[in-house]
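Run log, item B.
One chain of 378 residues. Sequence copied directly from the ordering sheet:
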Amino acid sequence: MALSIVILGPAHPFRGGGITTFNERLARGLQESGHQVEIVNFTVQYPSFLFPGKTQISQETAPKDLRISRRLHSMNPVSWYQTGRYIRKKKPDLVIVRYWLPFMGPAFGTVLRQAKKNRHTRVIAITDNVRPHEKRIGDEAFTRYFVKPCDGFITMSARVEQDLNDFVSAKPVLRLRHPLYDNFGEILPKSEARKTLGLDPDKKWVLFFGFIRAYKGLDILLNAISRVHDPAIQFLVAGEFYEEERPYRELIRSLKIEDRVKIVADFIPNDAVKQYFSAADLVVQPYRNATQSGVTPLAYHFEIPMVVTRVGGLPDYVEDGKTGLIAEPEPVSLADAITRYFEFGEEHFRPHIRQKKQELSWQVFISQIEGLFERLND
């Protein structure tokens, strides 16, 4: 059955971080399944104190295959009511809303209450961080306000499912696996990618990728590097700093690892992502805490094994000794896992990664959304 669906959340021209990328890929997958889809996007997404990066706006070309309308101002209640009335009159069968930050709870909760006054629309929330990495006053109240008009929930880690159970009862909660980010192009030859990035083709490259915040543990990785004794193992850090960069640079100097770390301190545009992953031998996620990570499905798409820390939902996605290795979030354990990975060798992991890719398809994810929608209408 073809549905009319609204995805409520960020899309182009907001920069292609995990939420934006996910929403756009989900919209395409739903369209491929025969549904009519509109993304109801923000006019203003974050206040400056919640966005420490350089800019929220992408310079990339707008997608021509998606219908995106900019309506919601996250801090303007008039906009919340207007956006809700727009969706109410549109009368979609389903609204899929992404919830990744309690700050969005008042806006999203009001929009959904207005939209559901048509007595037709169902709401499924895809919840990423019911309790955020960096807690603020009002988080719990904002989340409670958000979840009330939702009819069903999807989580992508056991940690988020547990958190959600503190806010929701008597509503269906479905835990799914985060599908692959397969919209960043094909795998490049390793030599070609390294030449493009100016990396030594004869070294072994470990990639840390994504926005740099305290909870992602880049300092743990830097402290581990001096304990990885093979000088051929080099480290590439690619991502924009969302906090002060200077302490990391000072740590690198104090550890005397300047010759082993290359930092690209900038937002990596979508069309360059394939170069970084194709150049890498290993992806490392040294996080202090996590729910799930968009880096993981990227690594699977590009068939790169991972070392992740045993926090939050990260171990849910990595089979220890098969698709990667799991370490504790401290330097000695992380260094040991990186060393052991290169002792195993890439070919030990690749068959398991290719098998896992089959399980993380968008078709599987979307069929589960369709099934949950049917349950809501039984």
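Observations after the first pass:
- The mean pLDDT is 92.
- The first helix runs from residue 18 to 32.
Flagged for discussion on Thursday.
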